[in-house]
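Exercise 7.
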Amino acid sequence: MTRTEIFEALKKMTTEERLELIETASKMIREDIYTNTKIHVSNKLNLAEAAEIMRPFYEPGSELIVFADQDTEDFYEYEDYA
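Solution. The predicted structure, written as tokens, is:
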């Protein structure tokens, strides 16, 4: 059924039928959101697990370490940084 056909069918419905349709559609959408959110949350890693997974990528000798700041000197101590 196309959107145009749906709109035409809606025009032929009574106000009560439209409200019932809206309520049913809203309930279906809320159930979909709840189901998708529940699945998404259950698949999330906690921060500690994520850190352990990423640890090898930031160890000395890895490819990503070149993007890390190896300078241990504090930046805020510089007088002329601006």
